Every structure is written in structure tokens, then in C-alpha cells.
Amino acid sequence: MSPRRGSTGGAPLAARYTPPVPSVSQRREWGLRLIIAYKFVKAPIMLTLALWLTLAPGPAFRTLGRLAHELAEGGIAWARAGAWLQANLTHRVVAEGAVLAWFDSVSTAIEGALLSIGSSWAEWIVAIGLACLLPIEALSLEHRPGLGKFLVLLANAAIVIYLVRRRTLVRHNAIPVAPDEPTEHTS
Q: What is the per-residue pLDDT across 10-33, written as a single tens digit (0 to 9) for each?
């Protein structure tokens, strides 16, 4: 008996073997899974920040003031950030920060949920939303350069490029799409 044939002498085992079909979540590319994980980690952090700034603005202001002082006294690496925070920290900034944190937490959670659904329109919504922020982030970076701002701009640009490229390749059938995965042409 040949090692490639089964005990019945029929077709080769490789010809009869059908690998299990992976689930939708297993078929997603690692890049998309990474973006979804990032969204679901960031959303509760921003929600916590929004709650803190909204429910306890006085203590938040004092804590941020102490943080600014510690940073300013913390050495050359953080002195500039601490001095800037001390000069710009106001109760209005805390209130506006709360509004931004609420908006960011809700929009990030919605983006994560949409991406986890797996439909193509969700990827387009996230890509377009982030693409709209890129010019604002670039202007902010130009106004006051910083490594953090640069990394945020770079990460968001990479996400936009990745999602647009992914959707474009799927549309032109360069990436195989599983039959139960929604596309622009189905659902």
C-alpha cells in the first residue's frame, strides 16, 4: 500500500482531505484585528477620562496642575511639557477636554464595533473619518512639533492607507473574500 493512499486503495489522502473552513474572525487579516483591538482598548480609556473630567472637574484640574508641576520639575526631558501644561491649563480647557474625551470615546467605540462587524462600508467609514483628522493633526504638528503628535499622525495615516488599500484590493478581487463575508456587492 502506498503511503499516499488510504486503506481502501481509493484516491490519495491529500485529494480527499478538506481543511476546516476558518471562521470570519480567523480570516481577518492581522492588521484589521490590530486596529479593532486598538479601538476596543482606547474606547474605555477615553470613557474613563471623560467621566473623570465631567464628574470631578475640580479634582481633575488640581491633579493636572500637580502633574504639570511634577513634569516641569522632572528634568530636561519633561520640563517643556510641564511648562506648557502649566501655562495653558484652565478650567475651560478641562471642560473642553471632557467634551473631546466623550466624543472620542463614543466615536472610537462605534468604529471598533463597525469594524468588528466585518462589512466593507464600516472600513470605509473608519478610513474617511480618520482621513478627515489628518490635516488637523498635520497643522497641529506644524504649529508645535512633537514626537507624540508625529506618532499619532503616522499611526492614523497608516490606518487610513491600510484600510483604503484593503478595500481597493478586495474590490478588484486581488484579495479573496469568503462567501459569508459581506462585500460591496453583497449584503
A: 555 555 666 665 554 455 578 888
